[in-house]
Amino acid sequence: MSIFENSATLKDKVDDTHPLKCTILNSRNTNGYTEYVIEVTRTGVQDCTWKIFKRYSDFVKLQNMLYKLSPKINLDLPPKKYIGNMDRKLVMQRQNALQSSLNTMVENFMLANSLLVRSFLDPESYSEYCKESLFQKVGMVLRGNREFELSKELPNIGWRLRRKSFLSKWKKDPKQELLLSWTECGPDLSLKQLDLVTVLKSISSIIVS
């Protein structure tokens, strides 16, 4: 959560609005497995290109995680029968098929803006955020609030990156549950931290009539 971070960290935040572009440059044999060298570029940002190294099994894991979100998501991966086959022709066929899968990821708005895909393509910027639980941090903001209390963290809802959803209870009527949406501040943060804290405290003190 941004209000607990220093200004230097805020300046280094990744702008999620810039699309990613991916190109498989080549493949290499690593410990008997084919590993693909993928160049990823954050478009619209100068000198923002990096390389990631993925095996076919990494794509399968991503497909399985996406399937849990929606069975309709299909990256159209090449058949598994090619795994372990080092024949150059088959490796190139699989590389072309995986490039098509990458194109599907970055060209589909919903997929391109999901944390699973972003952490796959840019693990340095997104992987830790995928693992992080904001329950305690959000609870700190609501601490001392006489009207509401945090109930539980919900799975990701919608396409927006870094947005978390929670259920909160209205203390006057515990049976009534409210949806709380939490979005981390990005690189476009304009308020100073003290001003932001004041705004958040004001919002949390609003009484629902």
Automatic annotation (TrEMBL):
Alphabetic keyword roster: Cytoplasm, Kinase, Transferase
InterPro entries: PX_dom (IPR001683), PX_dom_sf (IPR036871), SortingNexin/PXDomain-PKLike (IPR051837)
GO biological process: early endosome to late endosome transport; endosome to lysosome transport; negative regulation of monoatomic ion transport; protein targeting to lysosome
GO molecular function: kinase activity; phosphatidylinositol binding
The keyword Ribosomal protein belongs to this UniProt entry's keyword annotation: no
One GO cellular component, as annotated: plasma membrane
Localization in the cell: Cytoplasm
Recorded superkingdom: Eukaryota
Domain PX: 14-128
Name of the protein described by the UniProt record: PX domain-containing protein kinase-like protein
Organism: Schizaphis graminum
